[in-house]
């Protein structure tokens, strides 16, 4: 599940089995945020109606309904037509405190959990104090809201009235803490956080100097603090010191070979239920171009999973732009005007953000969200202008193509199919990038995406949808291979290949074979993999593929294993094509 979320799949698998109230409640939770106070109140009431009727959950459901009613009442005076007061609702809900849970039974020799404000009820051998940071042990005193401590002392001396003061609260808190740590007979371990959630440093509790006085010869209280990450052994070893750490001898680095031999067909690692090899996609084949080891790891499902904060990276920008374009330019419809584009793009983008990148809905991402909206709007206006100038019809969006490459099955999903007035089909792939590197790749003959699309077909049978049939008829109705094009959304360029003469200033014609070198290397890679030979990369490969082929080398960063099995060599691992020697 964690891997799916990190890959951008935010749809829980168990949702498919939800029915009735459960499905409706999930839809309500994932629905758009309310725009008005009236919508907010209605969503809260719907939440109450959809809660579970199970008798075992009756007390919890009753408590949830009661809190929801209080929340609606708190919003009662707000104008229903006004903007939803979400901040007020969140503050009210955040103030909720769960009722204390009853204590369970105590077990002799077991682990007991004691809260910071509780007095110890028995002796312990070992005591772990959690959260030993500034502001705890003892907590800061609240003091008297009306009198200073000096005034409280004067009142006590004059009339004998004992009022709360900061000094008294601090003394009581220190006395409680002293009793708590005094309940341990063998060992007391204090755990404190080095940083907060934002990465800022946190200091130790103010009682650290007092504790250091209990230790003979301890002049510097800070020397008691030992970072867990800077010590040897596991965390448990460092906390309890109950077992010796095993001695591990360091391994000597191995000499990486030019290739490794395996007694199996590496090209057929992934198979279908009937035993036939699974199809390769253009993205997998491009990875194979760069690094056979990275490709094998992907085939085995052993790719490195990078755990990092959510970000609006290139992949996510492209996915959002693709999905907006698919809905903004439907097949068989008139191309939208600038006014329609300006009206629909914000709505479509927010809809897709809710579906595949919900974190972008927060106010912290407002600048990036608005920038992406402006970029997509500009690209859509230019694309609409290009389509109108070409008098091109959109036949289909997001459709699958299948075929074979060197007798191995391949498939891919194209973004768009256009048909010119003379019937010429053009398979288009959208790219959320500029055209510079893409143009060089086509001119150097290293493309391995749209060129594969033109070699594949749409599979049609009696169960095929009408939209698929229309795409198949358009491709099959043309006597030659279809033309292919990249539409680079960042600069609006359209790079077209497969038409010898094309009179249009809105399209850039790239002549020649755009995939000759890529297919030659893929053929060699296929033969090596079939023979069980896995070739390794060299340190010169990144420069070669970037300069000679204009290819991205992200595959070399897919896993630390690729770097570990990379030969230190000034020559690339592949033979340079004629005329491309650096």
UniProtKB/TrEMBL annotation:
Protein name from the UniProt record: PD-(D/E)XK endonuclease-like domain-containing protein
Domain PD-(D/E)XK endonuclease-like: 281-474
Pfam families: PDDEXK_1 (PF12705)
Top-level taxonomic group: Bacteria
Organism of origin: Novosphingobium sediminis
